[in-house]
Design goal:
The protein is 43% helix and 11% strand. With 438 residues, it is an alpha/beta fold. The strands form 2 sheets. It has a 5-stranded mixed beta sheet, with helices on one face. InterPro entries: NADH-UbQ_OxRdtase_51kDa_CS, NADH-UbQ_OxRdtase_suF, Nuo51_FMN-bd, Nuo51_FMN-bd_sf, Nuop51_4Fe4S-bd, Nuop51_4Fe4S-bd_sf, Soluble_ligand-bd.
Length: 438
């Protein structure tokens, strides 16, 4: 294990994670001692439009993967329309390798609750929902406890802190469907329907929950809001890069000495993150990695110094995504890793559209054939052709994301595929997987 250099350690930015290791960090008393709800008091004295402008000025971009400017999204909500407005927090974290929202909700739930109240005040919403993944039982308990504590103290409910602003906050547990991480599928699930993506337009900003104006934001996005209100836009922009402002929680997993969550300013490199994590495991050398979860194109050891911000990763041919950095070594097989990811996408496809439903189904079977030593070179063309028929033709981003590891692994590691096909690598799957497989 290597010791990080002082200049690398200096890149650690404890903002969103500053309370995580405090005793009883999830309790209201601890939160209030560490600036808790000070931002709410400040926000309630401001005009809602000024808060939206503050978030615009800060350059905060969505932390759920798309990186859309948060203040701009809030500004899309029509005002004076006579309809109820809603804020929905997407806490359905389910991307393989991603684990930044769950620890935040578990260790510091009040930061999310406070962010929800401020954001709801800004967009004039009197009802808000946190939609959390069904398996996240512990985090959901912590959130519900935080909501009860906040309500008992007057931070939620009627006439919050004497401001005249009312807000009810509901923590809703889903049923564990990955597709509900897609914002419109999440809204359908909240309404009691099967979680499937909606056709857009119309967009949630005007026709969201119950056909009313709705803002859907990620956990990390909303939890950032209190810090921006307290510190100001310029302070927030002092971290990160010019176009990707602020800190980000990077989920590091795989062949490194110390997997975990590392909060740094946007723009840090994988080389520095690996150094912070104590280096690669003994006997392992970096071969490939995901910058933002399994739905982002793979990168290689040649990309160690790519800035991990929205622009830098895009320039390298991938997507920052959820900053779920899965690290694989020369002892890992990119073909097998892609197969396992595809099995996930095939299983989690909602089945609404043909490209995703059928394309992932058949690509899984092609991978099984290749990994069982029964593949042909024509299978590689079939994979690329299938990806071409899924990408941009699926109803939502699930299908597009499923093609990312396939096309990128073929781009960088075609020889690994050919080694299975031409018999140089021993089969990883038995021929039994080809018979009656589902």
């Amino acid at each position: 294990m290597t010791t990080p250099r002082p200049e690398t350690l200096a890149k650690l930015t404890p903002v969103l994670t500053k309370r995580w290791l405090s005793p009883d960090a999830w309790r209201l008393g601890t939160y209030e001692k560490l600036d808790g709800y000070a931002a709410l008091r400040k926000a309630l004295k401001a005009h809602p439009d000024d808060l939206i402008q503050l978030i615009k000025d800060s350059g905060l971009r969505g932390r759920g993967g798309a990186g859309f400017p948060t203040g701009l999204k809030w500004g899309f909500i029509p005002q004076g329309d006579g309809k109820p407005h809603y804020l929905v927090v997407n806490a359905d974290e389910g991307e393989p390798g991603t684990c930044k929202d769950l620890p935040l909700m578990t260790h510091d739930p009040h930061s999310l609750v406070e962010g929800v109240i401020i954001a709801s005040y800004a967009i004039r919403a009197s009802r808000a929902y946190i939609y959390i993944r069904g398996e996240a039982v512990h985090a959901a308990r912590r959130l519900r406890n935080a909501v009860n504590e906040a309500k008992a103290k007057g931070y939620l409910g009627q006439n919050i802190l004497g401001s005249g602003f009312d807000l009810e906050l509901v923590v809703h547990s889903g049923a564990g469907a990955y597709i509900c991480g897609e914002e419109t599928a999440l809204l359908d699930s909240l309404e009691g329907f099967r979680g499937q993506p909606r056709l857009r337009p119309p967009f949630p900003a005007t026709h969201g929950l119950y056909a009313s104006p709705t803002v859907v934001n990620n956990v990390g996005t909303i939890a950032s809001v209190p810090y921006i209100v307290l510190g100001g836009a310029d302070w927030w922009k002092s971290m990160g890069t010019e176009k990707s402002a602020g800190p980000m929680i990077y989920s590091l997993s795989g062949r490194i000495a110390n997997p975990g969550q590392y909060e740094c300013g946007l723009g840090i490199t994988l080389r520095e993150l690996i150094e912070l994590a104590g280096g690669m495991q003994p006997g392992h050398n970096l071969k490939f990695w995901t910058p933002g979860g399994s739905s982002t194109p793979l990168l290689t050891a040649e990309h160690l110094d790519v800035p991990l911000d929205f622009e830098g990763v895009a320039a390298a041919g991938s997507i920052l995504g959820t900053t779920a950095t899965q690290i694989f070594s020369d002892q890992d097989c990119p073909v097998y890793a892609t197969y396992r990811w595809l099995e996930f996408y095939h299983h989690e496809s909602c089945g609404k559209c043909t490209p995703c439903r059928e394309g992932n189904y058949w690509m899984v079977r092609v991978y099984r054939r290749i990994l069982a030593g029964q593949g042909t070179q024509a299978d590689l063309d079939t994979l690329l052709d299938t990806c071409d028929n899924i990408l941009g033709r699926s109803f939502c981003g699930l299908g597009d994301g499923a093609t990312s590891p396939v096309t990128s692994s073929l781009k960088y590691f075609k020889q690994d595929y050919l080694d299975y096909i031409e018999g140089r690598t021993a089969p990883k799957l038995s021929e039994k997987t080809l018979v009656g497989a589902h």
